[in-house]
Design brief:
heterodimer; A: mainly alpha; about 85% helix; B: alpha+beta; Alpha-Beta Plaits; 3 domains; six-stranded antiparallel beta sheet; four-stranded antiparallel beta sheet
């Protein structure tokens, strides 16, 4: 069995998700503090929290392309 | 669509100020500005108006609220209440104040007396309950308490954790009473110990003073309880408690009767007075000279004529409405007034989470109303999920929209978004994940030669969402050009706007040139067009650098990042699909059908809830992060007309 392709896809997705996780943890804690003081910024906080998910999504796209192509 | 606004000055004689302000309040169209601040150099400086009746109204409101708070709540017939409000409202402010004073005069002494009696009685009941608990506990040790002439008994309560203090108290009391005292303890509950202290009455002053100084919780029995057996005290205590409870019930009944008679009028008066007070509070936004007053504000163009008519009908030529000549500075300050059909309203609410567009900008909410449901539908894309989301949204809207303001717009959003979800469910052939395929109820459609199964068509799906991204971003940039062109009509901004237009046009050209280059390289279009693509790219770069400088050329990278970001629609959609398949697989693996169905249902429900959240969040995010900033600056001031419930 060719292991290189699934391992490559796994690394692409795993690292992307890890990066997103680290970024989201920091944004989340800062955002929670912000919303505690200024609840009107909840909308912005939600958007900021969703921004690093792009990293995981890019990772997913690359992984899917590695697997399919 | 955003409404055109007109800045107006309403000028009238000061002696009619109250009536004219009331007419404006009833018309409910003017967004007030501070008139006393707005004057030209060398012009007349207007004085602020300080309403004299504000203090009277505040005092009346406070008293009425006090009475309303004392009276038990009774259900109010809103129609009758509205009738009272309309009747009193027509009689004018003086009549309202007079009526409020009459009601307060009639009710205040009675309600105050009743509530004060009730509070005393409740305090007594609480004390009697305490006596009862303690006496019941020390009843078994009554025989140990010596019946001595000239001796006094007091009870102290000590928390169990401070039990050790009892020895210290005993020593000190022995010393004070010269050994003429006895302490007997009994447990009251898990936390407290009651100690009966018997001591020679001649040392009463010193003993009580010592206990007081030690902050000991002393339970002083009423004088009539003294020198009686504990059993008699218990009976007496119970009788007194029953008597107090009966009196409280009587007071409650009296208050209820008063509430039935008066509550509706009090509620109506409170609303009327609060409204009038809110009206008066804005008086300090008005300017005045010796004989006239000036109200400054914004009125939507389409509501200007009806407002003028109302004032003309009521006051003839006494009131003048001046339309001010718009200047760039003035229009920068104009409020934003959405005027969209009901279907777009939930998307206006979505904008309130971040920032409203400025007056001169294009209203993004109708565009959101088109793309948000499409993105949500592409992400979730399941017939079964679509119907469940529709059901949940309808149920939550019906059940909770009265309690929470945000439920109605958000659930309307879900209702709208559930329809494309069902539609794309048909395209992808999905019904609760792959359940529809397993049961052979539905299969994915083949459109343009592509079999739109989400697993098999990952690449076409990726291309589709990237294409949507390209279109969306180009649309955003084009709207940005329109916004800048509108702003450019004002000479003050012409230079900046021209540069922004060049930058945005350059970005559009850069996207198109990359598409041409990619098409030519993959031989999708004739190879010769590659040269045209290169030329376009060079022109695009020149335009971007002219518009935003060298730094702006870096923006191209983020522009393509924005476009690739639309891949999330495909990625999250597949994760949704996978979880649905997992639910069906797990359910199918369990031998017992009922348990299998239950497990699958639970996982599907979790998936639906997750997708309601992530689907909305990512659709919203694509609009706000990728699309919105291409054309809107935000920071607009929302139009808040001076009217009941929405005061300016």
């Amino acid at each position: 069995m060719e292991w290189g392709i699934p391992i490559g896809a796994g690394i692409a997705f795993g690292l992307g998700a890890l990066g997103a996780g680290i970024a989201m943890s920091r944004i989340g804690s800062a955002g929670a503090g912000t919303v505690a003081e200024r609840p009107e910024l909840f909308g912005y906080m939600l958007i900021f929290l969703a921004i690093p998910e792009t990293l995981a999504i890019f990772g997913f796209v690359i992984a899917a392309m590695i697997l399919i192509m | 669509m955003l409404q055109r606004m007109v800045k107006v000055q309403v000028i009238g004689p000061k002696k009619h100020l109250n009536q004219i302000v009331d007419t404006l309040y009833q018309a409910g169209t003017i967004h007030l500005e501070d008139a006393s601040r707005d004057h030209e150099p060398g012009g007349i400086i207007l004085q602020k108006i300080e309403p004299e009746e504000a203090d009277t109204l505040a005092a009346l409101i406070s008293k009425i609220e006090g009475i309303q708070h004392i009276l038990p709540k009774v259900s109010v017939d809103t129609k009758q209440e509205e009738a009272i409000i309309s009747d009193l409202g027509q009689q004018g402010q003086e009549a309202i104040i007079k009526r409020a004073q009459e009601v307060i005069r009639t009710l205040e002494p009675t309600t105050k007396e009743l509530i004060s009696k009730k509070t005393d009685l409740e305090f007594t009941i609480e004390n009697l309950s305490r006596y009862q608990d303690v006496i019941e506990k020390i009843l078994p040790i009554e025989e140990q308490i010596p019946a001595l002439e000239g001796f006094e008994i007091t009870i102290i309560l000590i928390q169990r954790e401070f039990e050790g203090l009892l020895d210290l108290i005993r020593d000190r009391l022995t010393s004070i009473t010269k050994n003429q005292c006895e302490l007997i303890s009994a447990s009251v509950d898990e936390e407290n110990i009651a100690t009966v202290v018997i001591f020679n009455r001649q040392y009463a002053g010193e003993v009580h003073s010592f206990l007081y100084s030690q902050n000991v919780n002393e339970l002083r029995l009423p004088p009539e309880y003294l020198n009686r057996p504990l059993k008699d005290i218990l009976v007496l205590n119970r009788e007194r408690k029953e008597e107090a409870v009966a009196l409280v019930e009587q007071i409650d009944s009296d208050l209820r009767e008063l509430a039935i008679t008066w509550y509706m009028e009090i509620s109506a008066l409170r609303r009327l007075l609060t409204d009038r007070y809110e009206e008066l509070k804005v008086y300090n936004k008005f300017g005045q000279t010796d004989y006239t007053f000036i109200v400054l504000g914004w009125i939507p163009k389409k509501l200007l004529e009806p407002t003028k008519m109302k004032l003309r009908d009521a006051y003839g030529d006494l009131v003048v409405v001046n339309e001010l000549e718009p200047t760039p500075e003035m229009m920068d300050d104009a409020p934003t007034f959405y005027d969209n059909p009901a279907i777009v309203k939930p998307f206006e609410y979505l904008l309130s989470f971040i920032s409203h567009p400025k007056y001169r900008e294009i209203d993004p909410s109708p565009i959101f109303a088109i793309f948000f449901p499409i993105f949500f539908g592409l992400i979730v894309g399941d017939i079964g999920y679509g119907f469940v989301i529709l059901g949940i949204a309808l149920l939550l809207k019906k059940t909770f929209s009265e309690q929470f303001d945000w439920i109605r717009p958000l659930m309307n959003l879900m209702i709208i978004a559930s329809l494309p979800t069902i539609l794309f469910g048909f395209v992808f052939g999905k019904f609760f994940g792959d359940l529809g395929n397993r049961l052979d109820i539905i299969q994915p459609m083949t459109i343009m030669g592509i079999y739109w199964d989400r697993f098999d068509a990952m690449i076409p799906m990726l291309i589709l969402v990237i294409a949507i991204g390209v279109f969306h971003i180009i649309l955003g940039l084009s709207l940005g050009i329109i916004n800048q062109y509108t702003k450019m009509q004002c000479a003050k901004y012409a230079c900046d706007c021209r540069k922004h237009i060049c930058e945005k046009a350059g970005m559009i050209m850069a996207i198109l040139s990359v598409l041409v280059l990619a098409g030519a390289l993959t031989l999708f279009i004739p190879e010769v067009l590659m040269y045209a693509g290169i030329v376009m790219l060079v022109i695009a770069l020149a335009l971007i650098i002219y518009g935003g400088g060298l730094i702006a050329s870096m923006e191209i990278i983020s522009l393509f990042g924005n476009i690739v970001s639309y891949a999330r629609i495909m990625a999250i959609g597949i994760s949704c699909m996978v979880l649905g398949v997992v639910a069906n697989e797990l359910g199918g693996m369990i031998g017992v059908a009922v348990i299998g169905i239950a497990v699958a249902t639970v996982i599907h429900m979790i998936n639906i809830i997750l997708k309601m959240f992530t689907g909305s969040l990512h659709s919203f995010r694509l609009q706000i992060v990728e699309f919105g900033p291409k054309f809107t600056e935000g920071g607009g001031k929302l139009y808040k007309p001076f009217r009941r419930g929405d005061r300016g």
